Amino acid sequence: MRRLALPATALVVTVLVLAPLAAPGYVLSYDMVFVPRQPLRWELVAPSATLPRAVPLDALVSLATQVVPGWLVQRVVLAAVLLLAALGAGRLVPAGRLGTRLTAAVAYAWTPYLAERLLLGQWGLLLAYAALPWIVSAVLRVREGDRRALPALLGFGALAAVTPTGGVLALAAVAVLAARRTVLSVVAVAGTALLNAPWLIAAVLTDADARSDPAGVAAFAVRGEGWSGPLGALAGTGGIWNAQTTLPSRASVLAPLGTLLLVGFAVAGWRPLRDRWPAGVAARLLVLAGGGFLIAAFVLLPGGRAALEWLVATVPGGGLLRDGQKFVLPYALLLCLLAALGAERAAAVARDRTGQESAARVVLAGVLLLPVALQPDLAYGAAGRLRPVPYPADFAAVARIVDDRPGEVLSLPLAAYHTYSWNLRRTVLDPLPRYLDAEVLTDDRLVVGNLVVAGEDHRAGAVRQALASGAPLSGLGVRWVVVQQVAGGLPVPDAALAGLRLIHDGPHLDLYENPLRREVTWW
């Protein structure tokens, strides 16, 4: 039974968080867009007009949905995030009490980091979050010369590398932890670096400018969630830039106190971790976690914002550092491991002072439940915010028409994200580029409050100019124009649709064909 305790705990946590996904439909939240069958197009493998932020993630989803429906793929990957995170963190705890492993498992699967990135829909990054404990575990074996650990290391490294940020984090973890003058360590680092090849090659092939809008630094800056400010939020693994993806419990006056308590336990757990792991490994993990924390907090330092603005505007690929809070990931793992070991020390003290084993169990149980008590609204799909919905029939109808007569599609209103009434008024990335088997033009700018972060697709700029000038869109050369009914959105001007022929008039989507379609130069 003791051997089943950790898997059972991981399963319970997964069910508690993802319970609403028992209902049919798709969870559509910000960047999380799954469709029944995502077409496999070259643009998803190597985007030509934008930077490869979803390479190779989109291509992998397209391949998977050729075999199984998208709703099943979504449930499998989200369940994998929770299960692997909890199991991996629990297994990574050095030899100790079972309660210590369970405490680490629950803590790592119930962090503000996981909650906020889940609501933001960045499930690809969360696969890296789930893979990191397994990567660290495999690296420990590689350092001991165990060649059998290499496949596991590269397998979980590949899981992390489905997004560029995850691949960079996996490479950093292996490079820092496995750095030894052995052939096996060199192979481990080289192999993990090679896993980043898909998005690196796509970045070289794209026509988009690899430099980014410096306005993104302010838009993506770490944000305070209570009276402890941005640093306090980061210490608790929170602080994401999007306030709409932060759970209400994070604004509680008790949240920073809970963070202080967890950090206190983590300080107490440093010595056990250092003593139980091979010499120097705990210090290396501390360096990795500290480096990630520093990247996240760099924008808060004097001159930090100006330096980052120069970096992203000047250095190709520097935009990867705009959303620095995501690099707190290694810190989150270390915090949970140390807090669990610190709770074990506190439990031992309680047992010694009282002479009762039950006292030790009470301490461990209290720390195990602390993350849940501090963030109870992560349960049941973030208090119902992750409820699935069906796509309106309009989407399938429009997809069939476009499949019969292929051509480029323009999606209106021109915005990257839409808020739909049929999606419970939740904001989500425009689903059409993944739903339709055609190149779909949308706006790739990001609006954060009053800030507008410029995108890389020059074609969207031509559409904005045409809309602003009142010129008909028929002159842009697209074959199809889809007008979506969005909650609170501005209507598309009649002048923009002049010359287009209405093909499908639905309650949620209107499809227009352009009889004047011709080849045009966008730049």
Description:
Keywords: Membrane, Transmembrane, Transmembrane helix. This protein has 22 helices and nine strands. With 523 residues, it is an alpha/beta fold. It folds into two domains: 2-384, no CATH class; 393-513, no CATH class. The strands form three sheets. It has a five-stranded mixed β-sheet with strand order 4-1-7-9-8, covered by helices on one side. It has a two-stranded antiparallel sheet with strand order 2-3. Strands 5-6 form a two-stranded antiparallel sheet.
Work out the oligomeric state of the chains in this entry: single chain
Q: Give the C-alpha Rg.
A: 24 Å
| Widest β-sheet, arrangement of strands | 4-1-7-9-8
Low-confidence stretches: 519-523
Structural category is alpha/beta
Main β-sheet, in a few words? 5 strands, mixed
Instruction: Tell me the strand percentage band.
Output: 5-15%
Global morphology: globular
Number of helices: 22
Distance between the termini: 66 Å
Mean pLDDT equals: 93
Total domain count: 2
Keywords: Membrane, Transmembrane, Transmembrane helix
Transmembrane segments: 72-93, 121-140, 152-177, 183-205, 253-273, 285-308, 328-350, 362-383
